[in-house]
Design goal:
Elements (H helix, E strand, L loop, with lengths): L41 E5 L2 E2 L17 H12 L10 H8 L1 H8 L5 H21 L4 H16 L9 H16 L2 H27 L5 H11 L2 H11 L6 H4 L2 H28 L6 H9 L3 H24 L6 H24 L11 H6 L2 E2 L30 E8 L7 E8 L1
Antiparallel strand pairs: 1-4, 2-3, 4-5
Helix pairs in contact: 1-3, 1-4, 3-4, 3-14, 4-6, 4-9, 5-6, 5-7, 7-8, 7-9, 11-13, 11-14, 12-13
């Protein structure tokens, strides 16, 4: 058993959002906005859209972990432990999200103890993503301080908050057996994650939409993928030297896998996000910056996903040899990146997070109407799901949707929608 080396992190026990030399990717909106680039407070878009069949682009098979069902119940008990159960329907929402299936498909070879740690982290990561979506920069920085201070000093720093308690318990289990390299990479990735969502919050507050290039760079950090890839090292008990993990071929595979996971998620989550007025999505970025219709933007993002798969395969073919032992770990790491690409595409149709109860219909027949959350007089939004119409035949029922988003802050979304049958 490897013991946590406290000295290796003593140089940075207290975290702040000030720029650091170790965090090279810094994003912030321009101080003076170009009115042509600022997101309009009122925009009108029409259309339905079809979803590209991303799983068909990929040659790697879906794999699952045999401990999935056991982990499902145990992670649920862990996340809702004690007095943390605050929302009456939160437990039901967890069941619908099906995070254990995501852990199972992304870490199929992990043993029981490690898959449990991975499953716990994934629900925590999505929880962080959900709560920070509705936060300003000050609030996101507060969450970041709790998480980063806990990671850097898990036996000294203490926070009574829900996030603090959960991240400490998760991290203490991770560092018992995770390699020092995986630990360092996990911490660095989390740092970049929080800095990127800080920038995302600043963009949202300013009503600014970045360029596709800048969004792509930011998305690689807001996705959280690099933390999940450090978990791939942990889950498979890999010991890959820093000099190897930084090789251009491995970095190329990581970026390609990250892009596929991120932009596939942008496609699958677009309807949910636009219903909340959230523009942190490549589809929204392309529609706004390039002034193209919805379906054209979806197809372009699908092309980006296809290109990411090609890049992953290209870089994998370029892997050199470092000797039998390291090569074995590198192959398992490369397989883990592929598992993430395959897993997230299949999980997106096994969860109700994006398509509600229609997920399997959407997977089979991916054309339908968009349903927005109807604007209420007090500015709040009512629940609605992505609704795909299905009459039992192979021909989908098409609807044209005219929706008007007035916003852009998540706390004050007002959506007007008119449906006309075509």
């Amino acid at each position: 058993m490897r013991v946590y080396d406290l000295q290796s992190y003593q140089s940075h026990l207290r975290y702040s959002m000030r720029p650091s030399q170790s965090s090279t990717r810094q994003f912030s909106p321009p101080m003076v906005m170009d009115s042509a680039l600022a997101l309009r407070t009122t925009s009108v878009v029409t259309g339905f859209f079809s979803i590209p069949d991303l799983p068909s682009y990929f040659k790697y098979s879906l794999r699952t972990n045999p401990y999935e069902r056991q982990v499902l119940f145990e992670t649920k008990g862990w996340f809702f432990q004690g007095d943390f159960f605050v929302k009456p329907h939160a437990s039901d929402s967890y069941d619908r999200d099906n995070f254990a299936y995501l852990a199972s498909t992304c870490y199929p070879e992990a043993d029981y103890l490690r898959i449990r740690v991975c499953s716990d982290f994934l629900i925590l990561l999505f929880h962080l993503d959900d709560i920070t979506d509705d936060m300003d920069t000050t609030d996101t920085d507060s969450v970041a301080e709790i998480v980063m201070n806990t990671l850097r000093d898990p036996y000294g720093y203490d926070s009574p908050t829900r996030v603090g308690v959960l991240i400490k318990d998760f991290w203490r289990r991770f560092i018992r057996t995770g390699s020092h390299g995986a630990q360092r990479r996990f911490i660095k990735a989390f740092d970049l994650y929080f800095r990127s969502i800080h920038s995302q919050s600043a963009y949202r507050a300013a009503g600014f939409v970045p360029s596709p290039h800048d969004y792509s760079a930011l998305r690689r950090d807001t996705s959280g993928c690099m933390m999940c890839y450090a978990l791939t090292e942990y889950a498979n008990d890999l010991h890959i030297p820093d000099s190897v993990i930084l090789h251009p071929a491995i970095r190329g595979m990581e970026d390609a896998s990250n892009d596929l996971v991120s932009f596939a998620n942008d496609i699958y989550s677009y309807n949910l996000e636009q219903s909340k007025g959230d523009s942190h999505n490549m589809i929204a970025v392309l529609m706004h910056r390039d002034q193209i219709p919805l379906q054209a933007a979806v197809e372009r993002v699908g092309d980006i996903c296809r290109d990411a798969i090609h890049r992953y395969n290209k870089w994998r073919r370029k892997l050199p040899s470092w000797g039998p032992e390291i090569d074995r770990d590198v192959v398992r790491y490369a397989d883990g990146l592929a598992d993430w690409m395959v897993g997230v595409m299949h999980w997106s149709f096994e969860t109700e997070r994006y398509f509600g109860r229609q997920a399997k219909i959407v997977k089979k027949e991916p054309v339908g109407k968009m349903m927005d959350r109807a604007g209420l007089p007090d500015g709040t939004v009512s629940d609605a799901s992505f609704s795909f119409l299905h009459d039992g035949s192979l021909e989908p029922v098409y609807y044209t949707v005219l929706f008007c988003l007035q916003k852009i802050t998540l706390r004050h979304a007002s959506v007007a929608i008119a449906l006309s049958k075509k």
